[in-house]
Design goal:
This protein folds into 2 domains: 11-148 and 160-183, no CATH class; 185-271, no CATH class. The chain is 77% helix and 0% strand. The chain has 9 helices and no strands. The longest helix has 52 residues, at 226-277.
Length: 278
């Protein structure tokens, strides 16, 4: 591969560290600015996150759905956490661009072409995973948990659900992160396949173990009900199959490129032989 395809500037270790520091400073500044902006909208963001629960409570017959906090600073720190996660998501394009600007000079042209689509697909797949949790999993899971309420409980002791803002945010963010990260599986496995660490045959042979592992991960990351666990495990299995297809496709593309290079090298050798004969 020609050296001109790579930025081969020699940089001392100190310059690499200074470059890394600059990229980290820009990334931190972008996250901080996004955090400040998101904090002013944290109440609206929390309401968006709480809307599935409010709808489930209304569907369960509650006329006055509400949430409570029992510690003086609980809701303040809840807003801070919401602002941080929202700010990080908003600033992710800047962070990703800074990461790209740091590593791109050390990549060959074909490596840049291979890596850049995956960098662009990462936030999209994460958003799709979070949207799947929000629109599909939350309504059913919240309705399931609310079904355990017994307003006219035995012995005259009613059992009612009083959600705390901090605990609700914990479970919501846990599920959003779990589904968002799970939907990154095609990116991770395809990248591993491109660099030669994994092959499609290895993924096929390890399918049964992967399925068991996915159900274990789903059981750990989701609430202890069958629907929530299956709603994470089944998409992960589908994404695993998609990853096998993508890795196999990348392998075939590499085989075609290798065959074309061999043909070009053979043609070049033939041309040189003919030139020597002449």
């Amino acid at each position: 591969m020609p050296l001109k395809d790579i930025d081969d500037r020699e940089m001392p270790l100190l310059e690499h560290l200074l470059e890394l520091r600059t990229r980290l400073m820009y990334s931190a500044l972008a996250i901080f600015v996004a955090f400040v902006v998101a904090y002013f909208f944290s109440d609206d963001i929390f309401w968006i996150l709480a809307r599935p629960l409010a709808r489930a409570q209304a569907a369960a017959g509650e006329t006055d759905p509400k949430m409570v906090y029992t510690a003086l600073t609980e809701f303040f720190f809840t807003r801070v956490r919401i602002a941080f996660w929202a700010g990080f998501f908003i600033a992710f394009p800047v962070v990703a661009s800074q990461l790209w600007m740091f590593i791109a000079p050390g990549l060959y042209r074909n490596e840049k072409e291979a890596f850049l689509p995956f960098l662009a697909a990462t936030p999209i797949l994460f958003f799709i995973g979070g949207a799947f949790a929000y629109f599909v999993v939350f309504p059913v899971a919240w309705s399931f948990f609310l079904s355990f309420q017994t307003p006219n409980g035995g012995g005259g002791v009613p059992i009612e659900f009083l959600p705390k803002v901090g605990e609700y945010l914990d479970i919501v963010m846990k599920l959003l992160l779990a589904f968002g990260i799970a939907f990154e599986m095609p990116v991770a496995l395809t990248l591993l396949g491109r660099v030669g660490i994994l092959t499609s045959d290895m993924l096929v042979q390890g399918r049964r173990y992967a399925i068991v592992l996915m159900f274990i991960v789903a059981a750990v990351l989701t609430p202890p009900d069958v629907f929530s666990q299956c709603s994470l495990a089944l998409p992960m299995i589908l994404l695993y199959e998609i990853s096998i297809f993508l890795v196999r496709r990348a392998e075939r593309a590499k085989e075609r490129r290798d065959a074309e290079e061999e043909a070009q090298n053979a043609a070049s050798d033939t041309t040189r032989e003919l030139d020597r004969v002449d």
